[in-house]
Every structure is written in C-alpha cells, then in structure tokens.
C-alpha cells in the first residue's frame, strides 16, 4: 500500500500487550514525524523537527505540488521537500538530509533510535498492517542491506545483523549477531521533540564573535553558540514573561550570528604566516596564528578594513534578508558582541553618522528618495561605461546609498564580472575619501583641539585609520560580553569618556562580564573616575543571590562585628587597668582622672578599631553619563559555587560562559522588552 492510499493518521497511542491484540482490534495507521540528519565529528544524529514544523511538512507533503519549500526552525532553515534537504538560510552550513519517519531501530553506539528509509518503512508498515489484520505474526522482512527484521508481535519486533561470512557465500541472512530493537511510531522511542518557537518576532539581535573560529570551551562555532543562546532565551521567556505570552503581547527575540573570521583568513594571510612560522610546537603556533593573531590583525589598517567591511556588510545583508523573509516585522534591532567582537561593534557605532531627520520624515520621503537613488545609480554606471549592468542593480533594488555600502563580495554575488567590479570599488573608495576629507575640514580646528587638549578626548582617538561602513538601521541597544573595550580605549590614549557622550545612533549600552573573565574590563570608571563604586550585580535568574555569596557576605559582616566588639572590649579593659585609684579629696580625684586619661591617650592601642564603613550609595541610582541614557553600564555575573574555589582555574571558562548563562540572557531580554513597555512577571531583587 502506498503512502497516498493509506487511511488518514489517527492520534497515536501506546501499543497494548501482545495478548490483547487480535484480528478484532483492527489496524491504525502510524502517525509520521519528520527528522533531519545532523553530522558532527563524522557521526550522524537524527534529530526530530518540532511538532509545529513536522505538521507543516506533513501538510505540504500531502499536497504534493512539486518542489515545495517549507521554512522551519523559526525561519532559519528551509526544507526542500522534493530533494528531502534542509538548507540554512542566514549562514553557510552543510545541507542536511530530511526523512518522513515512521519506523526506527536502535543504533549500535549510543543506543539512539535511527529511522529506516522511507521506502523500507512503507514495506514494514504494510507487513505490520497485514499481521495485525490477519493476526499472523512471526513475519520476516529483509532490509536493503540484507539484514533481517522479524515482527514477533506488536510489542516485540527485532532487527538482526547477518553474520559477516554469510554474505561472502551468497547465503540468505539469518538471525545471527546482536539483535536490535525495532519500534513503530515516534511516540514509542522517547524522542525529545522540541516545542517549537512562537511565530511572532519582536526584536532582532545580531551577535558578533571574538577571536578565532571557536567561541566556547567545547570549540564550537558561533552558529552553535548562538543556537544555545537562543534556546536559553526561549526558556527564560516561558519562565519570566509568561503573563505577556499568555496575553499574546510578545512572541520571541531572534538572534542571528555574524561570522567575520572566515572572511579574514580567506585573504591569503594564512599562507603568508605559514611561510614564516617555526616548525616547533606546531599545534600551539597554529592555534596562535588562527586565534590570538586576530587581535593584532584588527590593529592593522589593512586587515582592520577587511574586518570592518565584513562585519558591517554581513549585518546589512542579514538585515535585508530577514526583512525579505519577514515582511511584517515591525520590531527593533540590537547588536551584541563577545570579546574582540564587542570592540569591533563599538568602533563601528562611534563612527556612525546620525541622520538629521527623524524616522517619520524619512518614511514619508522613502519612495521619492528610492527613485532618486535609482537614477543616481544609473548616472554612476553610465559615467563608468557600465550601463549594461543597470538591470542587475534595478533587480536587486540598489540605490545610491546601498551602492556605497556594497563590498566586493556583494558585487560578486550579484554576478558583476571582475573588471566592472574593480571600477565600481575604485569609484566607491575615492568618493568615500572625498567625503571624509570634506567632513574633517568642516569640523575645523575646534574638534581637533578638544580631542587633544580638552579634558575629555574623543573616543575615536587612536582608532585604526579606516573607512567605517554605515549600518542600514539604528541599533536600539548594544550588549558587550566579556569586552576589552575599556582596555583598548586606555591604550589608545582615551583616559576619560565625556559624561555627555553617547553613541550617535544607539541609545543603550550594557557591558556584561564574569568576575573571573581575564579579557573583560569596566567602562564606568572612565566616565566617573572620582567615584568608587562596584558594578551592578546581575540577579540570579531564579530571583535571589547565589547561596554561597550570601553565606560569604554574612560571614564577612559577622567577622567585622566580632572584631569591632572584641577591640572595643579590649579598649575598655585597658582603660580600666591604667586608670588611677580614687583619691579621698575631690580635687585630687579630678586631677588623677585627668592624668589617667592623658596617660591612656599616650598609650598605643593594641590595634585601632576599624572605622565604620561609609554609607554606600544605592548602586542603581548612580548616574554614569549618557552612554546608556544615564543608567548603569557595567554588570557583573555571580560566579558559581565551584568557581569560587579557584579564580585562576576557571578564568578561561569565565570568558566563554556567556552563551549558556541564564542571567546574561535574562538581562538582554529584560532590557529589550522594556523598550516596548513589557516587564518581567516579577521584578528580580537588585535589578535596576
């Protein structure tokens, strides 16, 4: 029986005992579930789609209208049904195989269930239907790999490996080897099926990685780490924004990774480095060349330009692609950077040009400006004798502003040949230089004097000389994880940041770090250098301070109190010992007391009593300039109990912990949703 001829799938139920099955029970068609194959480290793992995605795939499969493309995983992957392929939309990734699964067998290595091929699953299902209908069991089937499957009863179905020698002589496979369990239906294999993601996207966040291709202690890529960050955000939304979700006020936040490392190392620099690298300790040297040197590349004007162009063009590309796939998106955009990635974003943001008109006036003139921009592109192409490529630019809707944001990679993807591509890039770079020269001359000597001699040097002082690309959007908030921004500003000669300074196009800035992170530095002391105060302690996502920190603070307070009480008692005792005896005459008595008091003052105390600690100001009320709208900037995570035993042992982990940190994710969500007036179900203690 073919898949189309089968009766519609009924709600699945657990298989009853074999004794309860007879011909009178009838046959129920199995409910299929869709899986995809993930290959990691040479090992295949079959993972289920979420219930929502599987239902959409099954619905599209039932229509059978040729090659249908179904978006899955929140729109980040497309499934091409005809080819049975799962393709990443926003980043480069190997294509995954997709299956419509009904029958499974237990694998050899990790005891995970593996789905049979769709064609063989149909054979198994047909044999199972006949066995149930006629009550005839002990059915034997031979798989395409000449392995035997025996259906003993509805509860016991076994897959046998044939002996290795049987195939050599061409004999029929027998039930030799270790038997493997066979299961029918996804409900019988205890698969962890994801719940799926809300369709509504409230906010978009681009995440830029730091040095090297690996982003965490398990050497995973930025895509995998951001996937973890997104998963944690979904669980935090369910735990802390349940009311808003139930009232359908919010959906979710989408996080998209931005990869610049591969573009930098595809420039041929690795070959140049290989020629000059010593042969000894090769693994360590390769690690340094591939990871640590990224920080040095960023301080080179040549490679800094490559990194900046890659990050900006990739974020612009992802933004346009996201809008194309989500035309109803009305939310804001934020950016986040880890380690060196946060410094790249900070430099980009400090060099953004704030538009003089507001958003409303820009929306009103959008059609006019776009038509003018199209005419401008035509004039530029005509000037460069490239008019034949006008249809290409019209098709991609490239106006004058978008043209000057194009990098070589974008022009190559549009199909522009090398010669015309070089002409356009030369024209764009020359126009940028002219524009920068005009802006610098218009600024005059006033800005130069202020940046060198004033009390607050420009934050762009000491930046690498480069043409800083412009973003197509205004970020709402900038999140920095484990960031060395403070250190780089200090090295560049920026000792103080003007309290009135704010990023030109971004209103929010949060510097989040682990207390043991060796790469992280604070920002607030550069704005308010005369006031000593601690960074804001991020509240635990379960609503309290970690127990070992509370215990540590309690013991500290107790020891100070005991110390002060003990010193006070010793002082009283010392005064009583050194005090002169009372005299009979009152006048003599007063003189003796005066002498005793004087001698007491001359005698040194065993140890002076500690001065009472000055009253601390509420940390959330401290104003630290306009960089974050007057709100606090530095936020420190609470270390875990095991991390408090040895700071040095967990230093590296402290720099790579942010991807799975619930406290970090919750702060990001809290600040993002505050921009649209949505708050936590219950405010966390100590939060701003």
TrEMBL record:
Q: Which Pfam families has this protein been placed in? A: DDHD, SAM_1, WWE, WWE_3
What's the protein name?
DDHD domain containing 2
Annotated WWE domain ranges read 20-100
- Residue stretches of biased makeup (Polar residues): 440-451
Tree of life domain = Eukaryota
Q: Which GO terms describe its molecular function?
A: metal ion binding
Instruction: Give the region (Disordered) as residue ranges.
Output: 435-456, 588-620
Species annotation: Gallus gallus (Chicken)
Tell me which residues make up the DDHD domain. Answer: 471-674
Chain intervals with Basic and acidic residues compositional bias: 599-619
Family of this protein: Belongs to the PA-PLA1 family.
